[in-house]
Structure formats: C-alpha cells, structure tokens
Design goal:
The complex is a heterodimer of chains A (192) and B (280). Chain A is mainly α and 192 residues long. Chain A has 9 helices and 3 strands, in the order ααααααβααββα. In chain A, a hairpin with a 2-residue loop joins strand 2 (166-176) and strand 3 (179-184). The longest helix of chain A is centred in the N-terminal third of the chain and has 25 residues, at 27-51. Chain B is of the alpha/beta class and 280 residues long. Helices cover 39% and strands 21% of the residues of chain B. Chain B contains 9 helices and 12 strands. In chain B, the strands form 3 sheets. An 8-stranded parallel β-barrel of chain B has the order 1-2-3-4-7-8-9-12, surrounded by 7 helices. A two-stranded antiparallel ribbon of chain B has the order 5-6. Chain B has a two-stranded antiparallel sheet with strand order 10-11. In chain B, helix 1 (17-29) runs parallel beside helix 2. In chain B, 46% of the residues are buried. The chains are: A mainly alpha (192), B alpha/beta (280). The interface between A and B is medium-sized, with 28 and 21 residues.
C-alpha cells in the first residue's frame, strides 16, 4: 500500500496511462486494472489516429510500432486545469516526434493546424498577425501521399521508401465558425 | 437517513442545462405525447456552465422537478481540494432550485483535467472520506446529496460495492442513487448474480433514486465487460432489475432514464415503456 493513502488515486491515474499497476495492487484487481488501462489506451490510440491520421501512420512505419506508448505515458505530465486531453496528446506527440526525422514532425504540425488546442501551436510560424506556418517540405503533397497509404493500410515499406518533395510551403489558417480553414499561400510568400 | 427529506418522485430523464428549456417546452406542449409522463429532469451541471435564464421558473411552469447531477466533484478526496469549483457551483444550483444533488462516486478530474473516471477504492477509508464530503455538500447546498454507484471497470478494496455504499450512507447521513447498469457491470467483473446480490441488500432502504441506461457488452477474458452507453437501447433486463429494486425497497422509487445521444424515437419508446412498467 502507498505510504500516503491519499496518493493511491494518483498512483491509479498515472498507472492507467503508463500501463503499469501500482505495487500495492494484487491478484484479480491487478489484472482488471491492467485490462482497463489497455482499453483506455486503445481509445487514446483511436483518438490519435482520428486527429493525426497521416503523422501517426508515418511514425509507426518509420519510427516504431510502439511510439504511441511514449505519448500515453506523457499524458499525466502534461494535463492541467488549462490543458485538456487533446492538448496533452498534442504535447506528447510533439515530444515524441520532434526528433523522429523525415517529414513526420511537419506532417504532425500540418494536421494539428485543423485542431483546437489549449496551447500555442509549436510550428514555424511567420511573424505577423495572420497565422502562416512555414514547412520545409511540400507538405500538402506529403500529406496526400501518406494519407493514401494510411487509409489503404499500406505496408510500412511504402512509407519508409517515400521521399517527400522539398518545399518550402506556406500554409495559412483562418477561423470560420467552429472550423479552421487551411490555405496554401506559398505563392504569396515566395520560395524562401 | 434522518436529516434528508426525499421529495423527488416519478419518472425523469437526464439532460444538460442547455436542453432544459426544450424539455420544459415539450412537457408543456405534450409533444411528443410521452413527455406528459415525465415528472423531473436530472440536469448534469458543471462549474463552467452558463445557465439559460429563468430555469427554475420554466421548470415550475412545466411542472417538472429537478435533480442536479454533478460532473466533476472528486468525492473520494476531501472536497476542500475543489473549493473553487464548489464556490462556482453554489449560485448555479441556487438558480435551478433542485430538490436534490447527486454524483457518481469516484475521481472525475485529475490536476484539473477530465481524463476518465477512476472508481472509488472500496474500503472504509474512502467510505469515510465520501461520507464527510456528503455532509459538507448537504450543508453547503442545503439539499439532500445522494451518492451514486459509479461505473466500475476494475475493483480495488476489501469491501464489496453494496457494503461500501451502506457505509457511505451511514458516515454521510445521506441517501443513495442506485445505477442499475453500473451494478450489473460490477457484478459481471466480480462474478456475482445481480438479482441475488440486490435481493440480499438491506441497505436499499437508503436508495432515493434509480438510474437506468443502455449499454454495450464487450466480450473479453475472463468475463465480458458491461459498459454504459446512453445512446443504446435500454434492455428488458435492466427494466426488470429496476422492478426488483422497487420490490426490495418496498416502495416505488424515482426512475431516471439516462439517454443522451439516443434518437428521439428511442427516448419516446423508453419513456412510454418505463411509465407503463413502473408508474401505471
């Protein structure tokens, strides 16, 4: 049992996201807890795939089938009164994919442009009041290709052998009602 | 439960604050006709809600009672930790003028975020904490507080659920809400027969309200898991288990149908069936 009984709920909440049962949990309780942890992380995995379909497919293909485990583990570190679950997953993904190489992180940023987050987007935003982001690759072409692979459940080799076209590209996002509208403004911002 | 007065009666449906006025209008208009058979609303209220104007008056005009269902209180921990949340809830509850307040027992928010429920650890420590919180809530809001059995996906603690609820009622001097689906889910993972378990429970005298909802059953080893799914159909089994609860209690208890997300045709059907089964 935890030294401080009040901490038991912290142990349980963190354990659900880490996929580890507290030491003081034994027997069938432990089995049920771990099963529930897996069920909840399956729901999180679905959420990752729904919000970031291309980035998560590419990350699985070129990085690791298990990269999402790191994202789930990071959730308890990120949540707070002002950071909801979606934003916590965003921050966890940002952490997990930042050094993944290729265009994974840029795809992740591109898909994040359409999501409501409770924190500033961590992209290469140009100075100025309009929200314009710079991508080093032809990000829309990359997104189209990886989305084709993703929706087709393509072998990972397809993604690994894909070479994205260089950019840069510039994408603006504007708010219309409850949606973000993304517009390619590369022509306005030149090629460099 | 000496200090609480039970006043809720009949058949209720759950809704959000924003849906309340529509529900009142339906009752007044009798459209759909089944709405004439609804006696109260169980209104889910969060501290961040903005209420539509004149809710209490509209409810009175529609001859609808109200029960408030909290969504974010962690009654398994001292509520001192959520003082700001409670301070924001006080004026909201006053504006609704409900006859009672309630919430599923458990940890609903963690570090201020809603991450999914951690059910209560079923032991005497937690029962005492919830009991103290029940007393605090009843004093703060001046209303009866009813502790509800939550969905339980994993069981921790040395007490069984209904013994745990007995202790909560005793320590908090409060009533209880018995959620039929949550009870079945608990029985499924602890290898209990829901009917036998319910029939053997003396503490049902403290139950002030029943909740009934649809569900999905997910096969798994070592046993299938019953998950509440309010958009799904309410099964005959749930209705019959609720009927058994009435029988065990020796009186007709208020019945809340939890059906957010269900089609209007399904809601009309269930209201009609529940009305006929329990109140005619």
């Amino acid at each position: 049992m935890s030294a401080d009984r009040a901490d038991r709920y912290d142990d349980l909440m963190v354990g659900l996201y880490h996929g580890t049962a507290p030491d003081w949990l034994t027997g069938q309780s432990r089995e049920l807890f771990l099963r529930e942890s897996q069920r909840r992380r399956c729901e999180l995995a679905l959420k990752l795939r729904r919000l970031w379909p291309a980035a998560t497919y590419l990350a699985r293909s070129i990085h690791s089938d298990d990269f999402a485990l790191d994202v789930f583990r990071a959730v308890p570190d990120h949540v707070s009164a002002s950071i909801d679950l979606t934003t916590a997953l965003y921050l966890g993904l940002d952490q997990a994919l930042r050094d993944a190489g290729g265009c994974v992180h840029e795809l992740f940023t591109y898909e994040s442009l359409a999501i409501d987050l409770a924190c500033p987007l961590r992209g290469d935003r140009l100075p100025g009041s309009a929200e314009v982001y710079r991508f080093t690759y032809d990000i829309q072409a990359a997104w189209g290709r990886i989305s084709m692979y993703s929706t087709g459940f393509a072998p990972a080799e397809f993604a690994r052998s894909y070479v994205p076209s260089p950019g840069p590209t510039f994408i603006a996002r504007t708010r219309h009602g409850d949606k973000w509208i993304l517009t390619d403004v590369t022509d306005e911002h030149g090629q460099g | 439960v000496a200090t609480t007065e039970h006043r809720l009666a009949g058949l209720g449906v759950n809704c959000t604050p924003n849906e309340t006025l529509l529900q009142c209008q339906r009752k007044v208009d009798g459209t759909p006709a089944a709405w004439r058979g609804i006696d109260y609303l169980s209104i889910g209220v969060s501290s961040t809600d903005t209420l539509p104007p004149e809710m209490a008056r509209k409810l009175r005009e529609a001859k609808l009672q109200a029960a408030v269902h909290f969504l974010e209180l962690n009654v398994v921990r001292p509520l001192e930790l959520q003082r700001e949340v409670i301070e924001r809830l006080v004026p909201l509850i006053a504006a609704i003028e409900p006859v009672s307040i309630e919430q599923d027992m458990g940890l609903w928010t963690w570090r201020g975020a809603q991450l999914g429920l951690v059910p209560p650890i079923l032991d005497d420590d937690t029962a005492r904490t919830i009991g103290a919180n029940a007393t605090f809530l009843q004093t703060t809001f001046g209303l009866p507080y009813y502790a509800e059995n939550p969905p339980i996906d994993f069981v921790i603690g040395d007490l069984d659920l209904l013994t745990f609820m007995d202790r909560v009622a005793e320590y908090g001097n409060c009533g209880l809400v018995l959620d039929i689906g949550h009870l079945v889910g608990y029985c499924a993972i602890t290898d209990r027969d829901p009917e036998e378990y319910l029939q053997s429970w003396r503490g049902i005298r403290n139950v002030r309200q029943l909740h009934i909802a649809g569900f999905t059953l997910k096969p798994d080893t070592p046993c299938p898991i019953w998950y509440d799914d309010h958009a799904e159909a309410i099964s005959d089994y749930s209705l019959e288990l609720a009927a058994l609860a009435h029988q065990c209690a020796g009186r007709v208890l208020p019945v809340t149908l939890e059906m957010e997300g269900a089609t209007i045709a399904r809601v009309v059907d269930h209201v009609t069936r529940a009305r006929r089964r329990f109140f005619e």
